[in-house]
Design a protein that fits this description.
four-stranded antiparallel β-sheet
């Protein structure tokens, strides 16, 4: 089923660990709360949790922040958990909240780092890319630069900011100063928190991108051919193949689950490629906002759940693939938490 990962993001295994409950015991407690005889159930599906899938008939739940807190309070009332455990749950909820922000920051950096270059042992990004990474506008960034210029810790020329081919560029230390200024002075708390995390997340991501392997077009084409042949030139969603009588015009394409422009380092990974009909590929990109818009496996899963909700085995395959790709991303960037 489709669900908002901005609302439901707390894994039941981690919540049960924070509550110091065996997962089986935790399952029983949740079921008791769902089936409560109160006028309204204490815990409700689609409000406090969703069922992501089933394993051997048992539901795998993903909880919302409200759901995690509601369960904790209910268990506190009957003496199952104590104040120390409650603090552990609140810490877990906050950790997930920060990871959600970090995920948005990483995605923004992936999508807006085409200007990245290393010069004089420093990583530089153009003014335009920095505006987009901070999700602000040129006027507000200029105002931030002015505030920093008049502060006790101004930008240092050629260390924090410089001009490369007449384009203003910022280094990692320059990004950090912008991050601090924006996190202190923006009106919106949500925006302040986002800009604060840019200063933490950007350095390891940009350092990684500067060193990341960039496969050639021929290497990418070879990986696509491998995936098509491995699946007998069959669409991995519909099962359709090119046929003289029924599908004479069917075209099979290699779709990159993390798009090859913004996630180039994954472009020749077979696990990141799925063989699908050209029609599905075109329809997905139009649904997602256009062929030039960045996409991830989460976007593709959401599309398939909407377009082909009956394809349970294919949806499960994509969720399994998502786990594999998250592990690859974690391996490539071991300092960064994943799990959007």
């Amino acid at each position: 089923m489709g669900f908002s990962r901005e609302i439901f993001y707390i894994e039941e295994c981690k919540l049960s660990q924070a509550l110091e409950l065996d997962l089986g015991v935790f399952d029983d407690r949740v079921q008791d709360l769902v089936q409560s005889t109160h006028e309204e159930p204490i815990i409700q599906e689609s409000i406090h949790f969703i069922v992501e899938k089933h394993i051997a008939g048992k539901p795998i739940r993903i909880f919302s922040r409200e759901g995690a807190i509601a369960i904790t309070r209910s268990l506190e009332e009957i003496g199952i958990v104590n104040q120390t455990t409650i603090k552990s749950v609140l810490t877990l909820v906050e950790q997930y909240r920060i990871e959600q922000i970090d995920t948005r920051v990483r995605r923004s950096i992936y999508e807006h780092s085409s200007s990245l270059l290393v010069k004089n042992q420093r990583h530089w990004l153009s003014y335009q890319d920095v505006v987009k990474i901070f999700q602000t506008n040129e006027k507000r960034l200029a105002l931030a630069m002015d505030y920093i210029r008049r502060s006790d810790n101004p930008m240092i020329l050629h260390e924090d900011v410089t001009k490369i081919k007449e384009v203003i560029c910022f280094s990692l230390s320059g990004l950090e100063k912008l991050s601090i200024e924006l996190s202190l002075n923006l009106r919106s708390k949500q925006r302040r928190e986002y800009c604060e995390r840019v200063g933490e997340v950007a350095p390891p991501v940009l350092e990684f991108l500067a060193l990341a392997p960039s496969p050639t077009d021929s290497q990418i084409d070879s990986a696509v051919r491998y995936v098509k042949n491995q699946n007998n030139k069959c669409c991995q969603i519909t099962g359709a193949t090119r046929d003289k009588y029924y599908n004479p015009t069917l075209q099979l394409v290699g779709h990159h689950l993390y798009d090859k422009n913004h996630y180039r380092f994954l472009a020749n990974e077979p696990d990141n490629i799925i063989a699908i009909c050209q029609e599905i590929s075109d329809d997905f990109h139009l649904w997602n906002g256009g062929f030039n818009k960045s996409c991830t496996i989460d976007n593709f899963i959401e599309y398939i759940e909407w377009k082909y909700p009956e394809k349970h085995d294919k949806i499960l395959m994509l969720y399994n693939r998502r786990s594999v790709l998250y592990l690859k991303l974690t391996h490539l960037q071991p300092t960064l938490p994943y799990g959007e």
